[in-house]
Specification:
This protein is mainly α. The chain folds into two domains: about 120 residues, no CATH class; about 150 residues, no CATH class. It is built from ten helices and two strands, in the order αααααααββααα. Strands 1-2 form a two-stranded antiparallel sheet. Helix 4 runs antiparallel to helix 5, helix 5 packs across helix 10 and helix 7 crosses helix 10. The longest helix is centred in the last third of the chain and has 29 residues. It is globular.
Length: about 325
């Protein structure tokens, strides 16, 4: 009979019941820093050395731009790889790394000649490939990466050393060699403050979506906050330079011009961020990389500046032309 003695199953004695299994207390959740905390920590680590190198200038500054350019273009080529493309990473990275040095030792003609040579090289290399099915994508992706990252970011060298450029264009005038230090900081402030203003205002007051198909989290209120913050940041940068280094670097840029420059740069910074969002959305990627905690990749950090820095350079050329040549 089931339950009889000798059936092989132990029986608890009458009135004795087994205790239920003990429940382990839940483990304490480990503290994880928020995305904002990670952003602030990354900024605290990056900002001081970047400011120092911007001030020192010279080959130290060029080397920094080369490092950022090399990392960013490899992240861009990651977008292409995610789409199934096969860009020439080695050639593209070498070209992007060479551009800041070419701009530093040469001029705009040398840089554009180099870009022409890069395009021809990319096309000729396709003749050595046995498979031609992806030739068009490979050429387009490789060269666009050099242009989008390498060429645009090389303008950071042009802005930093704009005093030499202005001296060639206006030989009768003297320009402080550190003039570009003020302008590159001015431009970076516009990009950083625009990004921060859009982030905080968008989270607090964001209601109307800006471009849901491109970046669902961006709002019109955030963009407005970013433009205001970028403009105020630029005005603050001029004020700080006026107080710390009076009459040297920021004196020729009036507050009206600083506000106008800041507003334009803030708008362009938002557009630069949207351009990278389009590329990431097309590649089905959330971030360009993971090298910067809370931010993502290097391209995620410099996307706003990629458009803002060239615009800054050409606005400065126009500003000084109108100021001294007309």
């Amino acid at each position: 009979m089931p339950g009889a003695q000798g059936d092989g199953f132990p029986r608890p004695e009458a009135g004795i019941h087994p205790r239920p299994p003990s429940v382990r207390p839940p483990e304490r959740a480990r503290w994880q820093p928020s995305n904002l905390a990670l952003r602030l920590m990354t900024a605290a680590v990056l900002v001081p050395p970047v400011l120092w190198v911007c001030y020192v200038g010279g080959l130290w500054y060029v080397a920094m731009v080369i490092v950022f350019s090399s990392l960013a273009i490899n992240e861009f080529y990651g977008f292409i790889a995610a789409k199934g493309g096969t860009p020439n990473r080695l050639l593209g990275t070498l070209a992007a790394a060479a551009l800041p040095l070419i701009v530093y030792v040469g001029d705009a003609f040398l840089a554009t000649s180099f870009m022409t040579a890069v395009l021809l090289t990319v096309m000729l290399l396709q003749l050595t490939h046995a498979q031609i099915r992806e030739a068009m994508m490979s050429v387009s992706a490789t060269f666009f990466g050099v242009f989008y990252v390498g060429w645009l970011l090389a303008h950071a060298v042009s802005v930093r050393f704009i005093a030499e450029d202005l001296s060639r264009r206006h030989p009768a005038l003297e320009f402080d060699p550190q003039l570009g230090f003020f302008f590159i900081i001015f431009c970076l402030v516009a990009a950083v403050f625009s990004d921060a203003g859009a982030y905080f205002v968008g989270r607090r007051f964001g209601r109307r979506k800006l471009a849901p198909a491109i970046s669902p989290n961006k709002t019109l209120e955030g963009v407005l906050g970013g433009v205001v913050a970028g403009t105020l940041g630029c005005l603050s940068a001029k004020f700080v330079f006026d107080e710390l280094i009076p009459g040297r670097l920021s004196a020729e840029l009036s507050y009206m011009a600083a506000g106008l420059f800041g507003g334009v740069l803030a708008v362009v910074a938002v557009l630069g961020d949207l351009v990278e969002s389009v590329l990431k959305r097309d590649a089905h990627l959330k971030d360009a990389g993971r090298i910067l905690p809370g931010v993502g990749g290097v391209l995620d950090r410099v996307d706003s500046a990629l458009l803002a820095i060239p615009i800054m350079y050409y606005m400065l050329l126009a500003y000084y032309y109108l100021r001294y040549a007309v």
